Amino acid sequence: MVDSSALTTAPPLDVFLSTSNRTNSSEARVGLTVLEEYAKHARVLKLTLYVIIFLVSALGNSMVCVIILRRKNMKTVTNYFILNLAIADLALTCICIPFDIPVQEMDYVWPYGAFMCKILYPLQTLALFASIYTLTAVSLTRYWAIVHPLRRQLTISKAKILIVLIWVFSIIPVCPYIIILRYSDNSCDESWENHHTRKIYTAFLFTTQYVLPLIVIATAYISIAGELRKREFVTECLRRQQLEETRKIVRMLVVVTVLFAACMLPNNIMWMWLDFGQADQYFKYFWEVVAFSNILTFANSAANPLCYTMLNENYRKEVKSTLKFCLNRTDKQVGGRLRKGSSLSGFELLKIPRSKSTTTTVSNV
């Protein structure tokens, strides 16, 4: 059994096929046929979703990393946090999914040995912690820059230190999970001294990985919204244009946060229900729902780059420029002709117009 962040230790659907208790043998055969057909289609759907999520996350988040790292003017505080979020998403999907799929297809027999048992599931939990803490850091950074623009702002060097601290503090709550995971009889499961301790740890994860960060984020963005609403009535035309750009950026960050909350909520609910309500004993299809809530958790990693593409026009332009640049280099190598690669525009993923006015210090973050 795993905690609310371990994504793939649900028992196979085949377990439920063997529990059908029919009085009539012909009805039993029909019932099993229906369940077997359902299991087959569910497995195909699940594998298809995993492949799509893997490809979109790998390509999309890699593109985010390339775009931010290639340009000097992209190295802003907010963009470094976005880069860190992309790295966490890549770790979650590109490392964990390829290992998870074989385990599920082998009816949860663990083929990787004791060392990977201690690494794979904690890595998933670590990536989720890093993601939500990064979103929290972004919200607080934007709050400080917008609500207190005249005060000292977070510098890039300090932002890098904060990112390191994010990963350090993400490791701390994962340590108990690493300790209690046991590899035995070709399985990787939690081994708690008693169920009460397990419930405490599950509640701890739900609180520190979901509830508290989202409360902080919501408070920050509500305060930002109030500040932007006040400034709208006291600024001239140029400043209003700058505020509109700021508003678009904040809106995109809010959407990313809402997507995270929505994708994580079902998985958290299912594991809280399991540990505090023994849901697997009362809900026949509990583990099937868990399986698809796990997919939703992974899907969040693929959703972020799609969100940037849909909500940020500058990011769309930069993606096109980067792809054009790569294609030009490919043509140059294949054709043996010298040509200039397309120059990248002066783009920032989270661009806020710069101004000499001290009231727009927010633009430098």
From TrEMBL:
GO molecular function, one term: neuropeptide Y receptor activity
Coiled-coil residue spans: none
Localisation per UniProt entry: Membrane
Transmembrane segments: 47-69, 81-101, 121-140, 161-180, 200-222, 249-273, 285-311
Membrane-protein topology: Multi-pass membrane protein
Domain G-protein coupled receptors family 1 profile: 60-308
Keywords of this entry: G-protein coupled receptor, Membrane, Receptor, Transducer, Transmembrane, Transmembrane helix
Gene3D superfamilies noted in UniProt: Rhodopsin 7-helix transmembrane proteins
Signal sequence, renumbered to the chain: none
Any Gene Ontology CC annotation: plasma membrane
One of the Pfam families matching this protein, by short name: 7tm_1
Family from the record: Belongs to the G-protein coupled receptor 1 family.
Record-given protein name: QRFP-like peptide receptor
Organism expressing this protein natively: Actinia tenebrosa (Australian red waratah sea anemone)
Gene field: LOC116297989
